Each structure stands twice: as structure tokens, then as C-alpha cells.
Amino acid sequence: MGTLPWIVSDDLWERIEPLLPRKERRFRHPGRKPLPDRKVLCGILFVLHTGIQWEFLPQELGFGSGMTCWRRLRDWNEAGVWQRLHEVLLAELNAAARLDWSRAVADSSHVRAVKGGTNTGPSPVDRARSGSKHHLITDGRGTPLAVILTGGNRNDVTQLLPLIDAIPPVRGRVGHPRRKPDSLFVDRGYDHDIYRDQVRQRRIVPAIARRGTLHGTGLGTYRWVVERTFAWLHGFKRLRIRWERRADIHEAFLKLACCLITRRQINSLC
């Protein structure tokens, strides 16, 4: 059972447990004792990995009902657990000098939103069906630094600056926390001189391919890492298609998946 990806390992639990909000039980009429957080987290990971619907979460696994897992995911996301966990993991990588700050790479990926909801829109690449976009920025090695969810009709370039600003301050080394790469590599979808100037104002060198130029600029030598990270993200079946009407629930899955990918990078150090 320890090899199954939805079983929470001891080292992962040691990082998550201090971040979880504590809820005091009532002295009088405390009600039924809640299911342990670790088991519920296993249920959340089971849904993330398999893509199963909440109501079909097998009870024999001992992870609680799908509604219990859904509520904890919502509450933990509202408490900022996944964001803080991501910052903890990034700090560990930074302390080991395994974050490549010499460059960052950004891109987006479209997913179909079957049930609609907030942060959706008619997709220009899927016959105007309802969809969403995952906007992602990684370091030079493909480690996720920040992710944003928007409607499927949102232009990529509009999220370039929000992505840069969403990079958290990363600790782990002597000096001030770092949150800006030296350069930024993106494709032709981000080609606009106004945004180049705004990237430079943040003291980041923009390496943005220009429309109308021949392929073979060499930028793809560095941009491929973000495509690989998208493949890792969409390896979690729950992220291949957006089933949630609520944007915050889908964003919670996105942030949790980024944490798991970052943790894999840490495990590769061993």
C-alpha cells in the first residue's frame, strides 16, 4: 500500500501537518469524532490521481466520504495550506541550490470545463466549448513556481505579469528571499513590446519570440521544460478535464499537484 501514490508518506505528512488549521471540539455535545486529517488527505489524493467523482469515492478505502474530502479540500485551500506548503518545498530546493534562477519559463494549457462555472469561457481551440486555462511559470529546471486559472478565452499575454508577481518569496538561502528570475523565456503568444518593457521594469530580461520570424530561434531549447511540467500536471487525471464548477476547488487541485511535483524534485536529490 505504501507504493500507491495516494498514500501519504511520513515525510510528506511531517511537512503538511503543521500547516493544517486546528479546530477545537465543543466541550458539550461534541458530536461524532472527525476523521483524521491524514486519511482525508489520502482521499483527496485518490481523487486527484484517479479523476473519480467525489460521490464514487470507495468507502472501503477508509478515506471517508467524498463530501468529507471535498469540504476539507475547500477549507484547507481557504486557509492557504497548499500555498504555504509550496513555499516550504521551494525553500528546501533553494537551500539545496536546485532552483535555477537564471531563467524562468511560462506557458499556458487549455482544459475543457464540462460543467462550466467561474473562470471559464469559450475556447478558441475547442470549437468555442466551455474551457479554462492553466497558466504556469517554472524555473529553468521545470519546477513550478506559480500557477493561475483563467477562462479558456483569456489571452496568454494578459497573464504574463500576474504570473511573475505570483512567484512567492523563496527562502532557504542567506540573504533576502528571492522571487525574481534573471530572465524570462516565452513563446510568440506573449509577443508585445509593452509587456517586454514591463518585464524589464521588474529587472528581468525578456526572451520573447517575435511573430513572423522563422522558427529555430533557439528559445525552444529552454522552453521545453514548461511543456514537460504540463505533462506532469496533466498526469493527474483530475486536471485533464475540469469537472468543478467552483474555481477555488479546481485551483486547490492545481496547487496541490504543483506541491507534489516540487516534492518529487526534492526526492530526486536523494
TrEMBL record:
Ranges where the Insertion element IS402-like domain occurs: 8-86
Region (Disordered): 113-134
InterPro entries attached to this UniProt entry: IS402-like_dom (IPR025161), Transposase_11 (IPR002559)
Superkingdom of the organism of origin: Bacteria
Domain Transposase IS4-like: 105-260
Transmembrane segments: none
Protein name per the record: IS5 family transposase
Species of origin: Streptomyces castrisilvae
